[in-house]
Amino acid sequence: MLKLAPSLAMGWILGTALQLQQEDIWTVQRITASALFGLALLVCAWALSKLGPTKSFLCGNKSDLFKGLQHLSLFLGSVALALSFINVRCLLQDHRQLVRDIEGQDISLTGVVASLPVQGVLGVRFKFQVQSARLLDSQRTVHLPAGVDLNWFDREGASMGESRAWADLNPGDTWQFVVRFKVPHGLRNPGGFDEELWLWENGVMATGTIRVGKRDTAPQKLSASWRFPIAQARQSTRSQIASSLSSVDYASQSHGV
After folding, report:
1. What is the torsional sign of CA 96, 97, 102, 108?
2. Which candidate, 16, 54, 142, 248, has a CA 20 to 30 Å from the CA of 197?
3. How far is CA 220 from CA 72, 108, 110, 224, in A?
4. 58, exposed or middle or buried, with CB in 10 Å at 0-12, 13-18, 19+?
5. 112-148 pLDDT, tens per residue?
6. Cα 89 versus chain centre, distance
7. Domain count for the chain
């Protein structure tokens, strides 16, 4: 059995490499056909392994031919199964069309902050675990990916230090937002960082912006919890460092005056 492992391993590696060259995800019909073809080849390899020893009259060349056909069947079967398996995984993870259908619409979103908020110049970005989502105008339930990236901007504040809109945003907290989603994508930069691929690899199938206009419902914190304790500990440490730096800066300014 160990003698057959290299054929299986090389076939799976080649199938994975071929899938990475695809321009788009296969359809269900094509995935099914590839999986059936791969299983048929594995059955053929099994039949050759059983048939070879029973034919004692086979000469050396024919025996080698049976072994070669067995390895070839295993190799091609592994390629086909790898292609079908990875395409199935991509198909299950792909929510691009779903997000396109609701792009630009206001969604009432409830869920849990699932990461340490990353602060920028005018806002914060964080991962959000969706619990429920519905269209704001029709109240129709919307099915979204389990994990999304949210951006919360404060365009009225001149800097992060002047805005406390998200001061109570902590990992593990349950919040309700009004959000507009878009399909994840990055800048067109051949040979550079592929943000869309990076988001895909991290399971982020949608990115959204929290609506904070005068006519929008204000973000509301519903509850707090001890979920994501590591992220909470990191945020506590970051807050202490920021507080210490602010105290030192204030003291130096007072001393200068």
Report:
1. negative
2. 142
3. 61, 11, 10, 12
4. middle
5. 999 998 887 778 889 999 899 998 888 888 888 778 8
6. 11
7. 2
Question: Rounded to an integer, what distance in angstroms lies between the CA atom of residue 152 and that of residue 165?
Answer: 9
| C-beta of residue 205 within 8 angstroms of C-beta of residue 148 | yes
Say whether both 107 and 211 belong to one domain: yes
- Asked if 81 contacts 15 with a C-beta cutoff of 8 angstroms, the reply is yes
Same domain, 121 and 206: yes
Q: How far apart are CA 204 and CA 206, in angstroms?
A: 6
Nearest to 109 by CA among 150, 77, 166, 71: 150
Chain centroid offset of residue 124 CA: 20
Domain that holds residue 84: 2-93
| Whether residue 101 is found in the same domain as residue 46 | no
Examine the domain organization and report whether 126 and 17 are in the same domain: no
